[in-house]
Design a protein that fits this description.
Helices cover 24% and strands 35% of the residues. The protein has helices spanning 74-86, 137-145, 155-162, 176-194, 206-213, 257-267, 284-292, and strands spanning 3-7, 13-19, 30-38, 44-49, 60-61, 64-67, 95-103, 106-114, 129-135, 166-170, 217-223, 226-237, 240-248, 274-280, 296-303, 309-315. The model has no long low-confidence stretch (mean pLDDT 96).
Length: 325
């Protein structure tokens, strides 16, 4: 019997567990994963469910899916489910969460893993999987129309995200030095412009940066497989997230990358109902971007010097949360 960790509406562990098959009380949530695998040709690995499966019998689906077990993280669940269902070891260094959907009884993390796999290497779990193959996005859309593929309501959004050329990959301590140098490079022009000797990230020590890296979630931003920046978010209080910093290298600014990242980040945290950020009031282009994204300026300001004022923005409406069925 499967046993799941129980989370509250803010995706915080409650310390309680749930046995699969029993009724789950309202307000209790568990973690679910859906794994999409894409090869270098842009094809997606799909599996066909066995005809005796309850729900969507005989229909085609993503590469693997299931619930996280007691003690598992989302990453661990994605690895285990893929191994169990199709016999493949995932390469999570090439993985990212495309979005998370909050539904009535859980949080569904949708993973994309870029990995070349030979169909002949698959070991299909007989109880679950009848067949597997590679399919293009157009072929999957055609299968949905013909009634052969599970009609996920977010399929169009998922495919748009995959094709956006923007990737967000979780940073680790191994990335610290590279991201530390990137941060200094991005903020150096502002440091010189405003002579900010108090708050500039340019002055942050590597030790302090490394501490920040371990706090909340730090992502590397890739555009067409090139590292172009980073974004750091952390939960301030239950339901409130701080967009602490978003860095885009100067040569990649003005391409809408920051806007796409902000939209994507919101879709990854459906438990968050309020976002906050600080920015430089005198940087009109940045203020315009945040206001365009739905952020509202608060009355909280801090005067750093004669040239520079820090202002706070908050966003509570129009959040990019993908709706469940």
């Amino acid at each position: 019997m499967e046993v799941w960790d129980i989370y509250n509406a803010n995706r915080e562990k409650t310390g309680r567990v749930h046995n699969r098959g029993q009724d789950m009380p309202e307000g209790d949530f568990h973690t679910v994963v859906h794994v999409w695998i894409m090869n270098e040709e842009g094809q997606l690995l799909v599996q066909q469910r066995q005809p005796w499966k309850k729900g969507w019998a005989n229909m085609w689906d993503c590469a693997a899916a299931g619930s996280a077990l007691l003690g598992e993280t989302s990453e661990m669940a994605a690895i285990r489910e893929t191994k169990e269902e199709i016999g493949i070891d995932l390469h999570l260094e090439n993985a990212e969460i495309l979005c998370t959907i909050k539904f009535s009884r859980g949080f569904d993390d949708v993973w994309l893993v870029k990995q070349n796999i030979d169909i002949s290497d698959l070991q299909l779990q007989y109880d679950e999987v009848a067949d597997a193959k590679w399919a293009t996005m157009d072929e999957i859309n055609a299968m949905v129309k013909s009634g052969e593929f599970i009609p996920y309501h977010i399929l169009e959004t998922l495919f748009e995200t995959i094709q956006s050329k923007i990737s967000l990959k979780k940073a680790t301590s191994k990335d610290a030095e590279e991201l530390f140098e990137l941060q200094k490079k991005v903020f150096m022009p502002l440091y010189k412009k405003y002579e900010d000797l108090e708050t500039s990230p340019v002055l942050q020590s590597f030790e302090r940066f490394n501490e920040r890296l371990q706090t909340g979630d730090f992502y590397k931003i890739f555009h067409e497989n090139t590292l172009v920046g980073s974004v750091h978010v952390y939960k301030k209080t239950p339901g409130v997230m701080r967009l602490h910093m978003i860095n885009i290298l100067e040569e990649f600014q003005g391409r809408g990358i920051a806007q796409q990242v902000m939209i994507r980040i919101e879709s990854m945290y459906p438990e968050i109902n309020s976002w906050e950020l600080d920015t430089i009031l005198e940087e009109e282009r940045n203020c315009y971007l945040y206001e365009k994204m739905g952020y509202v300026q608060t009355k909280d300001t801090v005067r750093i010097n004669d040239k520079m004022t820090i202002v706070q923005y908050t966003k509570q409406e129009g959040l990019n949360h993908l709706q469940s069925l």
